Amino acid sequence: MSAQLELRYQAGWHMEEPPKDGTRIVAIGKVIIEDAWSTTADPFCTDLEWTEKPGQSKGWHLSNGMSLVSCLEDEVIIHYWMPYPLPNGGPV
Questions:
Q1: Under DSSP, is residue 4 helix (H, G, I), strand (E, B) or coil?
Q2: I want to staple 81 with a disulfide (CB 3.0 to 4.6 A). Which of 23, 27, 42, 55 is the partner?
């Protein structure tokens, strides 16, 4: 494990798949947006939760209820996450 990854691990950042059970997390990642002409990657660092309700959209949503993606084809990649609220109110 690189020194940078070791520091993130010691700070409480998880690198495995985040929970998709409605648990609120703080996440660092990117949204991959593809269209007919280009592909872009928009980075983010925010609190999220996985929402899945019958008849409604499912996926990662912000604390205000808005979806992190604007199109069903967009892909959310979470690199690092930790539970929210942060342990000991710690820095991100």
A1: helix
A2: 27
Residue in 7, 9, 3 with CA at minimum distance from that of residue 81? 9
Q: Which residue has the tokens 């520091």?
A: 7
Spatial separation of the C-alpha atoms in residues 83 and 26, rounded to whole Å: 6
Residue where the block lists tokens 């798949």: 17
Output the six-digit token pair for 1: 């494990």
Domain segments of the chain: what residues? 3-89
- Residues 65-89: pLDDT tens digits? 888 888 878 899 999 999 887 666 6
Inter-CA distances, 60 with 1, 37, 46, 90, Å: 28, 25, 11, 23
